[in-house]
Design a protein that fits this description.
This protein is of the alpha+beta class and about 140 residues long. The chain is about 35% helix and about 15% strand. A 4-stranded mixed sheet has the order 3-2-1-4. It is globular.
């Protein structure tokens, strides 16, 4: 290869999770999106960026009002909600359930919308979506 020719840049992937685990994750997150009336589940973090990720970060974002209703003793305006017992139980239990469903090491969290938007500017990959069916003619 001459100096003038350069190797093509490696192709950027949508996700480095891999098949069929990412399909299993998609199915499991449909259930979470159905169970919580929020903005939905998102895969974030290193599994979207590089092949050597350690775990799959999944965030369920709720409106501030829904978050406060779900976790009444947690302050949704600060990161202190991560010390709330009910929040911790939900995060640990759902992380474990997602691991059972997918075989992936899952780091699951529920976050209030304002807090999530102020602190996380990285990419969010919406998962567990339900598509509307086409009308039959």
């Amino acid at each position: 290869m001459s100096d003038e020719q350069e190797k093509p840049a490696p192709k950027k992937k949508v996700s480095y999770i891999g098949v069929p685990a990412v399909f299993k994750l998609e199915l499991a997150l449909k259930h979470l999106n159905d169970a919580y009336d929020g903005f939905g589940c998102y895969v974030v973090g290193s599994s979207l960026e590089r092949p050597d990720w350690r775990d799959v970060d999944v965030v369920l974002i709720l409106s501030d009002e829904d978050f406060q209703r779900e976790f009444p003793n947690a302050d949704h305006r600060s990161g202190a909600f991560e010390l709330d017992t009910k929040w911790l139980l939900n995060s640990v239990a759902i992380s474990g359930w997602l691991k059972e469903q997918t075989g992936l090491p899952i780091d699951f969290k529920i976050q209030p919308q304002t807090w999530a938007n102020e602190r996380h500017s990285g990419r969010r990959d919406a998962r567990g979506l339900r598509l509307a069916g086409r009308a039959q003619e």
